[in-house]
Design goal:
heterodimer, A: 357 residues, alpha+beta, Creatine Kinase, Chain A, domain 2, eight-stranded antiparallel β-sheet, two-stranded antiparallel sheet, 12 helices, 10 strands, globular, disordered N terminus, B: 179 residues, mainly alpha, 8 helices, 2 strands, 45% helix, elongated, disordered C terminus
Chain lengths: 357, 179
Amino acid sequence: MSKKRRGEPPPEFHTGEWLKGSGADAEIAICTRVRLARNLDGFHFAPVQEPNQARELTDFIVQRLQQPGLPENLVVVELQNLEELERTVLVERHLISRDLANSKKARSVAINQDESVALMVNEEDHLRMQVFQSGLSTEAAWKRAEAFDEALMQRLPLAWSEEFGFLTSCPTNTGTGMRLSVMLHLPGLVWADEILKATNTAQKIHLAVRGLYGEGSKALGDFYQVSNQVTLGRTEQQLQSDVQLAVSRIVQWEREVRDALLRGSSRPRTLDRVHRALGTLERAQILSSEEALGCLSALRFGVHHGLVDGFDIPSLNKALLLSQPAHLQRFTQERLDPEERDQRRAKLLREVLGCEP
Amino acid sequence: MIARPMQFCSICQKAPATIVLMDLNGGSVSSQQHLCSPCAENLGVVQPKAGPVKMSPELLEDLLGAVQSKTARGRRDPACPGCGLTMQQFKNTGRLGCPRCYESFRDDLVPLLRRVHESSQHRGRLPGGTQPVTGAPVQDLVDLRKRLDDAVRGEHYEAAAQLRDELRQAEKGSGSSES
């Protein structure tokens, strides 16, 4: 654990583990995430927690996290000392949940240097650990989470029972407390109108599918998140291999659909989609984050399949992150109303992608 | 990305249509209908989207329906000695108050966990070097017996008969000498 920062902004620009663009199947499976929910014996869960208990709990956990010997060096960020914009930046980087950002209680997040580990303190559960691994990599992600969990078990009095496993505030998380999710880029399935079939198939085998961006179930920019629904009654290894198997099949399905979209009579329409997206990114003067995500999705597809030249995946990933409102304002150092944001976004994306006409 | 004029659902005429149902005839569209997603779900055209299960009061009402009638019959709304949370409060928020709630409300939680996870027995890792109970036959037997017991008490005789058969099978398989 390195020095504790109070109220300092998060580190300067890099995309973090989840947009690194490396790892197995990374052109489709962008990132794998393991989330473990843990609670402490002797403290109430969030719904009946008094403000002084929230403070006491947060300080206690942070102090224990600062003892030496954790597998990763973590920086603790006190969320009460951060401005709303900075908290939203952390949400957009998937390091904290929107609920944690908006909570009025004492709460913190501990993050490692490359943003591949984040521990939310006093969310719905006392501790929510997240481990990110680029690409489709459920086993490696679980191994890292397990090692971290082992260290937490040694320094914190966790609440558990032999019957119900790790006890969580919501019974839907109890048992392993593990939610394993993979962020997927599925433009092929969306364009070929097979996405509903794919999500229905996943749901039949107890996987949850939802959009990665945007509120509710609407998936913006063809980015989806697939995760296990069941957390109790199966071992972590079983859950991990279930998700790995199901997601590899979705990845395979996406590949087959992409092949079809690039062949024969489908090819002109696919090329048209990609080039229209590029045209919009090059020329549009006003871009909403929704439209930007759609265009960047198509361009990402085009770049990967060699349909357009002159772009690299890292700048596209950077553009994806900067399209989001808080990143846009933080990067440009300007507070903007939504209309100004859409103008600034159009300009910024041209700069980042190097396509100023 | 092309903005189109907003269409209203042709069934309820109230909500904006987000789904277009097209009939294709020889490669061309012969008819089309604009629907909002609730109406499309009612028609069975699309399946409702499922995110990770979020405990809503409605879902809990449904899952705990049987519990409520039991409570009404005999027990008052009991409170957890650990935190004072009552069953009714849990039903309103879907969140428990402290680790002890799992024991305090065990009888109500077990059927709920089975509905949500299709199991009420942890099989993963635990702290303190406690061995995970991965597929341990004895654990399966304990689980099956509990489920059989619940089924009989809940007068679900068909399920009970099936569980009895499963239990016999499992007992044979594990060579268990337990009665």
